[in-house]
Design brief:
6-stranded mixed β-sheet, 2 domains, Porin, SH3 type barrels, single chain, 8-stranded antiparallel barrel, mainly beta, 2 helices
Length: about 290
C-alpha cells in the first residue's frame, strides 16, 4: 500500500513539474507559461519567446483570465536560464537641443533700433540632458540640466558717462541661462510599450549671466528659483534608442543681480515693476535611451 501511494505521489509530482499555466490577455492572446507570482496588480511569469526563455510580468488589468496547470507538458526546458525582460522600461535618459524664445515683453518708449536689438536677443537655442527612473509604468522622477544661449550686437551706439562725457562704440550681449533641478514625470506608453507621451514638471536653480559690452565690458550675474514644465513624445528607433520631440517652458524672475566691470562689483536690487522675466519656450529634438 505504501509503495502504491509513493508511486501515485511521484506520478502527480511529475505531472506538476511538467504542467504549464495559461494566461489569456484582454486582446485574446493565450500564453503558454509558468506563473511564478500573483501580486496585487500584476502577474509574474516565465515563457518561451523566439526560442528564448524569458521572465516578465503583466498588469492584471491586461489579463482576461489565468489558470494553473492548464497544459499537460511544459514548453520550458528543465535546464533553462531565463532572461529577465521588463514589461516596460524603467530608466530613461536623454539629450536634446533646439530653438528657444524668451517670452518677456519689450519695454515701451525705447528707440526703434534698440527695440529691434532686444527682440532679436530674445531668440536663442537650448541644450539639455536628463535622466529619470520610473517606479511604475506611468510614474517616475528624474534630474534635468538645461541651458539657453542668445547673443546680439550693434555698432555705433552712444552712451553718457557719469562725468557727462558722450562716448560712442559697440553694444553687445552674450546671455546664458542655466536650469538644474529634479522633476516629476508622468508617461503614457502605447500598447506595444515602444512609444511614450510624457508630461514633466520640475523645480530648481535658475542662473543668469550676461557678458555685455556698452562701450566698456561688464558682466551681469544673478540667480533665482526656477520652474520647468514640458510635454514630449518618444518614438523607438532601436532596442534601447529612441527619438524624442519636446515642448518646454522654463521660467523664473530675477529680483537682483551683480554687475562687475573687472575692477569692482555692485549688487543691484530691482523694484517689483522692474523684475527681469527669464521665462522662455524651448522646442527641441533629441535622442532617448531606455532600459
Amino acid at each position: 500500500m505504501k509503495k502504491l501511494l509513493l508511486l501515485l505521489f511521484l506520478t502527480i509530482a511529475g505531472y506538476q513539474l511538467q504542467a504549464q499555466d495559461l494566461i489569456v490577455t484582454q486582446e485574446g492572446d493565450s500564453l503558454n507559461c509558468k506563473i511564478s507570482k500573483i501580486a496585487k496588480d500584476r502577474i509574474y511569469f516565465t515563457f518561451v519567446h523566439k526560442d528564448e526563455v524569458r521572465k516578465t510580468l503583466l498588469l492584471k488589468s491586461l489579463v482576461k483570465q489565468y489558470q494553473y496547470n492548464y497544459y499537460a507538458t511544459s514548453a520550458i526546458p528543465e535546464d533553462h536560464k531565463a532572461l529577465y525582460t521588463q514589461a516596460y522600461p524603467r530608466f530613461r535618459g536623454g539629450v536634446s537641443g533646439g530653438w528657444s524664445y524668451r517670452t518677456a515683453s519689450v519695454a515701451e518708449g525705447l528707440d526703434a533700433a534698440v527695440k529691434d536689438y532686444i527682440q532679436d536677443l530674445k531668440k536663442g537655442y537650448n541644450l539639455s540632458a536628463d535622466a529619470a527612473y520610473y517606479f511604475s509604468e506611468q510614474m517616475g522622477a528624474g534630474l534635468r540640466y538645461s541651458s539657453y544661449r542668445a547673443s546680439n550686437e550693434i555698432e555705433n551706439v552712444s552712451a553718457t558717462r557719469p562725468d557727462g562725457t558722450q562716448v560712442y562704440g559697440k553694444m553687445s550681449d552674450d546671455i546664458t541661462i542655466h536650469f538644474i533641478g529634479p522633476y516629476f514625470s508622468s508617461r503614457m506608453l502605447n500598447a506595444n510599450k515602444l512609444n511614450a507621451l510624457l508630461f514633466n514638471v520640475g523645480l530648481g536653480y535658475l542662473g543668469y549671466q550676461d557678458n555685455a559690452v556698452l562701450i566698456d565690458k561688464f558682466t551681469i550675474k544673478g540667480s533665482t528659483f526656477g520652474f520647468s514644465a514640458d510635454i514630449g513624445y518618444d518614438m523607438k528607433i532601436s532596442k534601447n534608442l529612441g527619438l524624442g520631440l519636446q515642448l518646454s517652458l522654463v521660467s523664473g524672475v530675477l529680483k537682483e543681480y551683480e554687475v562687475s566691470d573687472g575692477r569692482s562689483t555692485q549688487t543691484v536690487t530691482l523694484d517689483e515693476d522692474s523684475y527681469e522675466n527669464l521665462a522662455r519656450i524651448d522646442l527641441s529634438i533629441g535622442l532617448r535611451f531606455n532600459h
